[in-house]
TrEMBL record:
Keywords: ATP-binding, Coiled coil, DNA-binding, Kinase, Membrane, Nucleotide-binding, Phosphoprotein, Transcription, Transcription regulation, Transferase, Transmembrane, Transmembrane helix, Two-component regulatory system. The modification 4-aspartylphosphate is found at D719. Residues 818-917 form the HTH araC/xylS-type domain. Residues 311-338 form a coiled coil. InterPro entries: CheY-like_superfamily, HATPase_C_sf, HATPase_dom, His_kinase_dom, HisK_dim/P_dom, HisK_dim/P_sf, Homeodomain-like_sf, HTH_AraC. Residues 411-626 form the Histidine kinase domain. This is histidine kinase. It comes from the Bacteria.
Amino acid sequence: MTKAYLNCLLKFTFFIFLSLQISCKQKEDAYKFTIGFAQTGFDDDWRKAMNQSMRIQADFNPNIDLVIMDGEDDVDNQIEDIEQLIKKGVDVLIVSPVKSKPITPIVKRAYNKGIPVLIVDRKIEGSEYTAYLGADNLQVGTDAANYLASITSEKSYILEIKGLPGSSPALERSLGFNNVIKKNNHLEVIQSIDSNWESYSITDTLRKVLDETKSINYIFAHNDRLALGAWEVLKEKGLQNDIKIIGVDGLSGPNGGIQLVQEGIFMATILYPTGGDEAMKLASSILNGQTVPKNNILKTIVIDSRNADIMKNQYDKIAQHQKDIENQQNKLKRQEKIYSTQSNILKLLLGLLIISVLLGAYSIYSSYNLKKKKRELELQNKKITIQRNQIRKIADEVKKSNDAKVNFFTGLSHEFKTPITLILSSVETLSDNKALKDNKLLREIGLIFNNSKRLLRLINQLLDFRKIEDRKFTLRASETNLFEFTKTIFRDFEREAQKRNINFSLVCNNEALSVFIDRNLMDKVYFNLLSNAFKFTPNNGRIHIEIVDDEIGNCVKIYFKDSGIGIPGKELDNVFKVFYQGSNNNKPSSGIGLHLSKEFVDMHSGNISVKSKNGTEFEITLPKGKAHLASEEIIQEPDVIYDSGLKLNESDFESERFEQESLPLNPDDVYSVLVIEDNIDLIQYIKGKLQNEFQVYLSNGTDAIEKALEHVPDVIICDVNLPDKDGFEICEILKNDLRTSHIPTIILTALDAKDSYLKGLQSGADLYLTKPFSFRILFQSIKTLLYNREKLRYYYINNIHKINSNETFGSQEQDFIAQMNHIINDNLDNSNFSVEQLAENLNVSRVQLYRKVKAILGVSISDYIQNMRMEKAKSLLETSGLSISEIAYATGFSSPSYFSTNFKNTYKITPKAFRNKS
Ligand code: FRU
């Protein structure tokens, strides 16, 4: 629309300009006439004067265009000129015919064509022309003869130099002259010579005539140029004073007839006016439609020494006048030019004005259009917004429904985990059943166990996939001995390798190498790669794990090579893509295992790649150190302790492990574990697993605190989702209670979100394990925690003397011991001071005190007090001057002999001997 309008505007502007131009042109053309003048020739001054006067006249009238053609004094040229002027379509044709006869037909043609024809100076034959203008040449001849007759009465001989034969002036001038001469007897034309109007044409003839005829007194030349030429010949002959000359034309100006008369060169000249201005005036009248006389005769007079000056003055005045007119005309032309420039500027301005008006109109139109468009766009925008909102709503609904489905799916998967864990535990319980020993059902049970494990792994993979998709995984990397870690998983597959006669090996070039890995995730990566290797490697094949500590690359490379079916080369790029299924793989596969493996390795800033040649080789590269990890990604975990006694997985499901019997335990010899869990099946499962090695106490959660305070166990395993208080609360309470604060606590839950993990740590838990937990890891964790506590205990024992109330170590346990030491120290000389009294002072029960001290220090509280008394006695024996009896009472012994017996029992030396020795 806009483009079309602009186009239209441009066209319109162009049209306006064109109209302006045309209107001006038309204005000029409306009055413009062309007058064509076929001039005889341009060479002589008379013709030049004639042309000049015509041009001046033409200039007076801007509507007249004057075209003068040069006939070069040649008839044929002139005929051609006239033809051209006819063709040009001149409005008036002026002709000064070179000769009369040959020019007549072409003039006739023009006249008959309707072109007004004005004959000037020389005549044509007939009367087929509009008008004639010129002096009367008969009269010119007559005047010349009469003048001669008037100045002399003596017999005089005259030489006549005539003009061009065939031209009317030559004819008429001669005729008029001779007519008068004949009438005067004393005058005689003794010779006539012809010319072409120019002097060169007569000089030779004249010389001859003068030589032959000595009596010539006068020369009558038909024009001043012929007369001057004659004078020059006379001068040549020295006759210039003897023979007088009469010319024709009487031009003013240098070498003009008037000047030559003034100078005495000519006796006289007959004025023959050019009639240039009169011819133009006559042509104008013809153009104006006026009727003009056919014959327009110009006046002629004789100019001799008597009137030459006047004539000269007259002509000078006329010339001056003409010059003024010319100046005026030039001024006028300049004015016209200025006018035309201004008029052009005006036109341009007018044009610009029109354009600006049009542009203004266009801008109004555009703004209107824009507003309209804007309104339309706003409307459209509104519609789009509504549609977008609708789409958003639909998308939200779809998302909600999708989320609901996925949540349902995820929840369901979570739900699957506990029953499968229970199936597994039940299978294990069955396996422990003596009645099943040697029973064929054992194989079936193994099948259930293996498949339940597999199902559990698949569910875990699905949940992991969902977590990866939601970017919910957080790396929990801990410093791990890679060889030990690999070895524990390696062992899980060893049995299967044996069974299928697969050459299964593990080598490592640096068994002490530690890397920061998320054990849980890396366990899954290993498991996936090894499961695949075993899945696709035929019996009697080879599977090889190699760990290479690449010191130069500051990384570690783990290779998993197998001699299986391999992966087709063109599919290698796709193996880590989700839902990839090898084209040569007929075994069922979810297609997410390798995808997850890659994601997990990527999370470690590592890399996993695959090659396939005579089997498959996966290469995992992990960076060493922890610079690539964020601080929140690093956690503390117990060292991996490779425990060859722990094995429970599908490949290990061999009949011999079902033969193991649980041995009755002596509670004093073993560590105790309190399991807080409300799922009866699970609690029984854990109990079943642990009771061979530990004294196991159980709580369904409702009495967790009471049970913990009652038994003060060595380790607590606590679920999170419990009926009364949740696991985090229980843990917090126990950790804040002096009586139980020392007990290592493991939180065991199906919740594995990052928040829950953090909450677990905040509550003071020592470990956080997610369900379904690997019993192997749980067992190992308990052992590690106990081992760590043993180390702590060792520390306390060796630093017991340092721990007093004046020093605070920060930990609750240290505070407890410091407080306890303080109370004991205060009562060292009190033989009645009892454990009950101490417990009362510490606000704990006797049993709790006993258990706590036993747990922290590894000795009974009474032994501990006794120990302190002995230490004090020892120091008094060494440093004080007190007697042994006094020392015995000062350290709370009721009798010195009892003190001595005890001292000897403890230090294998009597107090007396000890003092002497020291
Ligand atoms: C000019 C001229 C004049 C003469 C006239 C006759 O060409 O020769 O000198 O008077 O022509 O036509």
